[in-house]
């Protein structure tokens, strides 16, 4: 396993609780849209075993042509040891990155694509939308639906409806409205549904989509292949 030690080159305060950390991209390192990476902080490998409290699996919110690996995360006042240590870092400090993998690249199957997320989950979808804007081949249109009660929406310059690009973006601030909209979107029996959020959020979305007849192969989750049955087995009737 290749571990890259790299420097933070920029920290952007997206909202009062959300920051994007841009780190230098090691030469030759590349990735697909919808990729995630392991981010580790100083000291994580100082002992005989890795200190897992200093390692997190994070989505990459940038594309390779942006020449920087962006990691967008929410850091609340009361947070984990990892988030507290991350919050204390500054431009020029070093972090470790390793194990890049993409579970949710943009499928180009001449279908409508629906991006379902909660809050900072938009960070996973940012690269998919940018990739679509750059090349819309074999994608009918994209609709993003995000639930965020803070009203401090992420990436407003990107997640804004653009009819000329066949892209629509929708924000709601409560679960009742959100799941009502998911039911409406699921009327498209041929659509592709990408879901990003907590495990509970994934399961609730899957249940709603299942009730509307959406099949497992139409649902994309940011999970390893071996984890998918845990979430999608109910749809198969198992």
UniProtKB/TrEMBL annotation:
Gene3D superfamilies: Nucleotide-binding domain of ferredoxin-NADP reductase (FNR) module (3.40.50.80), Translation factors (2.40.30.10). It comes from the Bacteria. InterPro entries: FAD-bd_FR_type, FNR_nucleotide-bd, Riboflavin_synthase-like_b-brl. SUPFAM superfamilies: Ferredoxin reductase-like, C-terminal NADP-linked domain (SSF52343), Riboflavin synthase domain-like (SSF63380). One of its GO terms (molecular function) is oxidoreductase activity. Residues 1-107 form the FAD-binding FR-type domain. This is FAD-binding FR-type domain-containing protein. It comes from Oceanobacillus indicireducens.
